[in-house]
Amino acid sequence: MRVRLAASGIRCLALAADNGPAWALVDLAALAAGICVVPLPGFFSPSQIRHALTRSGAQALLAPPSSPLEDLATGAAQEWSIAGQRLSLLALAGDPSTPLPEAVHKITFTSGTTGEPKGVMLAWRQIQPVVESLAGAVEAGPGHRHLALAPLSILLENIAGLYVPLWCGATAVLPPLAEVGLRGSSRLDVETMARALTQWRANSAIFFPQTLQALVEWLESGHPAPDSLAFAAVGGAPVSSRLLARARALGLPVYEGYGLSECASVVCLNTPVAQRPGSVGRPLPHVRLRLSGDGEVLVAGAGFLGYLGEPAQPSEWWPTGDLGRLDRDGYLYLEGRRRNVFCTAFGRNVAPEWVERELTLEPAIAQAALFGEARPWNLAVIVPAPGADPVAVEAALERVNAGLPDYARAQEWLTAEAPFSLANGELTGTGRIRREAIWSHYAGVIEPRYRQESIS
Q1: Which of 255, 264, 342, 345 sees the fewest Cβ atoms within 10 Å?
Q2: How far apart, in whole angstroms, are the C-alpha atoms of residue 456 and residue 445?
């Protein structure tokens, strides 16, 4: 495979395929051949895919036969058979908006909060330290089996679910996503996922908050927990401490972590020998971490080459945009995104993630988004938990508000028309809410609430 790719003359290859040995072989062979890979997540919209291909200047695309992406090809497709899977190699225009640095091995496009995702450029020299640190943290080895529950096109699963097991001499189990319960971009069949964990005798897996919550609810309904699981990493988005406690009560060995694409994925991680509930763990061995004067998390030792088409990062320390605090033992506690902090009409700063996390600790509240920029009070858009009526939500809101300072309380709330999801554009691929999209959807309802208050 490496020889075939090297002979193709391709410098930048886009990859849009389901999980499986073929995806892994293409990725590893391209790495060995010095070819830059651009993974394309299945949840990207057509416009986001076109943006990624145009921005990176990918010269070819490997995708399933008869894929809608064949419309982008500049010539006839070549049929490739890789590990028993048929893929089409499509030639593309391949005119990059800016030349790629020679060292770049992977461009991962963040799902982010905007319509046009940014391309994060990574070299192997930035990926390898993460792989080595994670290998030491999970203590995997021959006989260990990691089951991929997320697309390999997501950097976290690519590194922790493929590279780390292989680095340790362990086994990466990569069934098609439908066989682990993922349907389309945002539907989950939890029964299939639970069955896959048991069938494959998985020792480790990576969960996002949504998939962990689904599994916890499934187990709480009386189904047995997978007895082989020894390390269940949770990350990608803020996770409720109550959800983690429920998971542990069921015997699930869950460990919260924290990372960013710009840091080649994982930065901090709780482990069996070093964990502190409520934190995202301590920095991995290759990472240096400190806080700025205003509490922003700064990271060094895990940098990236820069964003595609933008100037290189001038500083050794990367400002993550996350706010946090460190305890005296070095455990990191996250407190929200700097760019999401808003200032009320009374001059009080509020990190909405803080309030949202408290709200979703309540069993009656599944999701929440808080707004209040330049307003005298805050309003939450709330997705009630299944079976929770407005009375239960109101009672939950009162309990949360009782423990918050007055400026952070959600004094008003409205019921979301539908859960925040990838399908409606109100959730990123890793489970973070898209605030701008939610605001845009509900502004027509929220604004009259504030106007009515000001008139009265």
Answers
A1: 345
A2: 17
Q: What are phi and psi of 218, to 5 degrees?
A: -65, -45
Q: Tell me: do 29 and 136 sit in the same domain.
A: no
Element (H, E) at 217: helix 209-220
Are 329 and 360 in the same domain?
Answer: no
Identify whether residues 327 and 351 lie together within a single domain.
no
Contact 208, 156 (CB under 8 A): no
Tell me whether residue 298 is exposed, middle or buried, using C-beta atoms within 10 angstroms of its C-beta: 0 to 12, 13 to 18, 19 or more: middle
Same domain, 93 and 61: yes
Does 130 have pLDDT greater than 80? yes
Query: Angle at the Cα of 411 (from 377 to 333), degrees rounded to 5?
Result: 85
Tell me the two tokens of residue 403.
């423990």
pLDDT tens digits along 157-196: 999 999 999 999 999 999 999 999 998 656 789 999 999 9
Q: Among residues 84, 91, 85, 38, which one has the least CA distance to residue 69?
A: 91
Structure-token pair, residue 167: 């680095």
How many domains are contained in the chain? Answer: 3
Closest CA to 353 of 276, 408, 304, 415: 408
> For the residues of 395-436, what is the DSSP string, one character each?
HHHHHHHHTS-GGG-EEEEEE-SS---TTTTSB-TTS-B-HH
Contacts of 60 (CB under 8 A, 6+ apart): 8, 10, 13, 14, 89, 90, 91, 92, 94
Instruction: For residue 191, give its domain range.
Output: 124-339
Among 178, 180, 162, which Cα is nearest to 170's? 162
Shared domain check, 319 and 171: yes
Same domain? 30 vs 143: no
> Which pair of tokens denotes residue 355?
């309030």
Can you spell out the DSSP letters for 319-375?
Answer: EEEEEEEE-TT--EEEEEEGGG-EE-TTS-EE-HHHHHHHHHTSTTEEEEEEE-TTS
Q: Crossing angle for the helix pair 390-402 and 352-360, nearest 10 degrees? A: 130
Q: Are residues 183 and 223 in the same domain?
A: yes
Nearest to 126 by CA among 282, 5, 300: 300
